[in-house]
Amino acid sequence: MSSSSRDGFTSTFGVLVATLGSAVGLGNIWKFPYLTGTNGGASFLLVYIIATLLVGLPVMITEIMLGRASRANAITTFEKLVPKNQGFWKLTGYMGVAAAVLILAFYTEVAGWVFAYIFKALSGQLSSVDPSHTKAVFGELVANPQSALIWQWLVLGFTGTIIMCGVSKGIEAVSKKLMPILFLLLIALCIRSLTLPGAMHGLEFLFTPDFSKINAAVILTAVGLAFFKLSIGMGTMLTYGSYFRAEQNIPLTATRVMFADLTVSLLAGIAIFPAVFAFGFEPAAGPSLVFITIPAVFHSMPGGSIFMALFFILTAIAATGAILSILEVPVAMLIERCDWSRKKATAISILIIAFFGLPAALSQSLTSNLKFFGLNTFDLFDYISSNILMPVGGILICLFAGWSYGLPKLKEALSNSGTLNNSTLIKVLFILLRYIAPLLIGIILLNGFGWI
C-alpha cells in the first residue's frame, strides 16, 4: 500500500481527540487513582508530573514523529528510516506489535468487567455500602468462565467493528464523539463528589503534598506510571503518528494530549477521593478501588446508582479509546506487510488476541492452576508487556532517535511544513532522548526485574 493511498486523520481536532483517546484509558480512571491513593496523594502527583515531562512527553513526541516520517506501521517504520547496515532497529517494531497483542489479551478482559459493571450498576446488583458485598459480586464475575469470555469477546467485537471502518471514519469519528462525552461525565461526577460533606479532605489529600512521603519507591512508581500512561513503547504512537497530517505540530499536539490526559486523571481523582473521604472509606484501597470500593462509595450517596452507572460508562469510554489505538497496531502491520484488506486484518488480529486472551480471561477460573514463574496467564501477560517489552521498546526508541537518527533528521522531521522551528526546544528534546529518558526507563526496567 502506498503512503499516498493510506487512510489518515482528517482534522486537527480529530488528531487531538484520537491521540488523547489512546493516552486516556483504564490507567486514568483505575490505575492513577489507586496508585495516588497508595503512594501519598499530592506528593506522588507532583513526582508523576515531573516524570511525565522528563520521560513520557519526549518519547511520545519521538514516536509520533517517527511514525509520520515513515508513513508506515510500527515494523516498516524502522525499515524505512534506518541505515541499511542497522536493520536490527526494526526489532523495536516487532516488540511493539508483540506488546500490543499481549496487552489486549488481558486489557480486553478488564474492559469486559467495566462494561459488565454498567449493567450491574443499573440493575442494582451493586447496591450495598458493604465492600464485602461488592467484593463478592466482583469475585463471582471473574470466576465465571462464561461471563469472563463473553464480555471479553463483546469488547473485541465492539472495538473491532470500529477499526474495520477505518482511521478517519472509524477511529477518528468515534473519538470525536466519545472524548467530549467522557469529559462531560467526569465533570458531572466531580460536581456531585464535591458537594458531599467532608469532600474537602479528599481535595487536601490530592493537592496538598507531604514531601516526607516521597521516597525511592514512590519515585519509581511515578516514573513507571508516566511512561505507561501515554501509550508509549507499544507501537501505538508510532502507528497513530503515521496518520498525522503533514502540517500538524507534533510537539504542540503531544503537549496538549499530555495536559488533557493529566486533566482526566485529576478529574478522576476529584470524582473519587472526596467521595471516598466523605463516607469514611480507605483511599489506599489499591487495585480493588474501582471494582470493590467505588461501588460502595457511590451507593452511599443519594442517587448513587445513577452516578455509579455514569462512572462505569465513562470508564468504558476510556477503555474503548485505548483499545482502538492498541488494536490498530497489529491491524496496520497486517494490512501493509501482508497486503490484506482492513476487514481481514482486523478479523485475524481479533482471533489472535482472543486466542491469547482465552487463558487470561479464565485465569480466575478454569486456568487458575496454570502458572508460569508463579504467575497466572493474566499476570504473566501484564508482566511481560509492562515490565519487559514496553520499557525495552521505549529505550530502543530513545537510543534510535538520539544516536542513530540524529539531531539533523530530528530537526527536519519536527520542522515539517514549517510547524516547528524552535531549535532550542529540539535540542532539549534531543538531550532528553539521548541521555535522561533512556536512563530513567532503564531504571523502570531494572525495577521490574526486582534488581533495584
TrEMBL record:
Pfam family name, one: SNF
Listed transmembrane segments: 12-30, 42-61, 94-119, 150-171, 178-196, 216-238, 259-281, 306-335, 347-368, 388-407, 428-449
Annotated GO CC locations: membrane
Keyword Transmembrane: yes
Gene Ontology molecular function: symporter activity
Transmembrane helix among keywords: yes
Keyword annotations: Membrane, Symport, Transmembrane, Transmembrane helix, Transport
Cellular location(s): Membrane
Main location (coarse class): membrane
Membrane topology of this protein: Multi-pass membrane protein
Similarity annotation: Belongs to the sodium:neurotransmitter symporter (SNF) (TC 2.A.22) family.
Protein name in UniProt: Transporter
Species in which this protein is naturally found: Iodobacter fluviatilis
